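S., here's the first fold you wanted:
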Amino acid sequence: MWFYLVTLVGLYHLLRWYRERQVVSGLHDKYVFITGCDSGFGNLLARQLDRRGMRVLAACLTEKGAEQLRSKTSERLETVILDVTKTESISAATQWVKERVGDKGLWGLVNNAGVLQPFAYIEWYRPEDYMSIFQVNLIGLTQVTLSMLFLVKKARGRIVNVSSVLGRVALFGGFYSCSKYGVEAFSDVLRREIQAFGVKVSIIEPGSFKTRMTDVESSIEKVKKAWEAAPEHVKESYGQQFFDDFCSTTRRELMKCSTNLSLVTDCMEHALISAHPRTRYSAGWDARFLFIPLSYLPTSLVDYISAISRGKPAQAA
């Protein structure tokens, strides 16, 4: 019995490997629009696809970021300034893309722009802190998608949304995790609603990687600002020692972030060029062997694991 089971599993993975190696034709004529290209995953993906010969339309938040990207790529790559929190900026970018893709439509839309900080406990956030996280990570992503969806449908192309392993299991991360759960839900609903049009939607779920968002000093500084701005009764309930331990743990964990960003961009590229892209891609060893397995465990067990790994607040019961 075990022999047959192992054989079936082996055949399944062999077939999956063969299917996923098949690449769509005519990549040199296909346009891909990527948000958040100033740095990190978006910047690396833009350069990666440009080297492959695809027509990259890279959206940057700043002109400086756009100039730096253009200096490292071919003349094929074009840039546009985009603030995903502003409707007029999204509309202008959509018109800009429409003028370039013409009747071919937009083959790939990669929603990569995102923010993380402050990385704190939910009670420590101010409304302006968590609203900006939702505005960029979720609302901005949905608005860009819906604005450009007609161009993707014309090409029967791909939508690639960058979520996080914290969108699968909310161990920590405050409102960042909440926003990524929203990305997961939006992507699942969208995929099922538009699959009849030949459009494929993939979700990228990175683990911990060293990018501008996970810069150690910047992260700690913003956590301290969030703590200082928190109401006195909140700070009293947790205690200064708890906060100091949290900062030390955060610093230690951020220093462990992987520097190999290609683990993520390779997943993005596969979702764009494979004839049979996956629905979800888990990128990074921590994602594959820690967070994703945890997401399948009973909730009570995950709660227990989370509880024993955290410090104890000053006024804990």
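And the second, which I think is the more interesting of the pair:
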Amino acid sequence: MPRRSHCQSNAPIDLDGDDECKSKRSRTSRAPTAKSSNRIASSKRDKTNQDKLDTHIFDLYIEDLWKHIDEDKKSSYAYLDSLWFNSYINASDEKKSKILKWTKSLKIFSRQYVFVPIACWGHWSLLVLCHFDETDCSDTKKGPRMLLLDSLNQTDPTRLQSDIRRFIRGIYETEEREESVHFINKIRLEFPKVPQQNGEECGIYVLYFIHCFLHSKKLAEVLENKKLDENFGQLFHDGSFEPEEFENFRKDVHSFQVKRSTAVEDQD
């Protein structure tokens, strides 16, 4: 059966059943809530496979990441709840307005980088909004750009283009920005080559990509040397990725899951 061009709605996200990582279709997300850490999106997480992340563990881990960055980065960076993008794409106009209201509170147009986790078809990828704080209406080449980082390129990440642009147009319109629709549609969306997964660790890769933006000195040097009118295509291929570092990060995520599971069991 052919896939739809956007994420399917009206079902709880289940990143642990038949998923994109297995080249099968899976169910996707429900509408978001204001306090994302208080909900568990999948009750069927496979506890024997710690590479598979549900949205609950994902959001808890990213919250923990945020606690360990300095105030300068907290003011320059932001991240969206892991369900907002998918919920927006499939929501009614009323719910879209609520999601955009939550997004507006993040002040995207005052940030250097904004991380938008995407969980569609049982697969995680990461949209990064770059330099939306430096919008130049007169020259689209020097304005903001977007990166879609996907650890499973065989899923064809370009199929998300139309949904991403709809979401971005909604953000601009809600902020009542002066940029024209033509300008918004011209914002560059790039698909950099990034390390590829060997199993079902797509969620861990998304967290790792965010971690690199927050903590990697090598990546910081790459970003600093990339002018806005240059191509970001080799972002993770300029010596910024080290397999051993990723493996250590992966083990840390596994350990985090065990601690959280133990804490929940103790409460029960």
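Why I say that: The mean pLDDT is 76. The first strand starts at residue 77 and ends at 79.

Talk tomorrow,
H.
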